[in-house]
Amino acid sequence: MPSENVAPPESGDRRARKREARRLRLLDLAADLVDRDGVEGVTMAALAEAADYAPASLYTYFPSRSALLADLQHRALEVLGTFATEQRARWDAALADASTPPDGDVAALARLCAFSALFLTAPDHHPREFRLQQQLLVTPDVEDVADAGRVVPAAFAVLAVPRDLLADAAEVGALSAGPTVTDPLGEAVDAPLVRTLSWVVALNGALLTDALVTGLPTTGRALGEHLTDTLLLGWGASPDALAGARSLAATWTVAVDAQEDR
Question: What is the pTM of this model?
Answer without folding.
Answer: 0.86
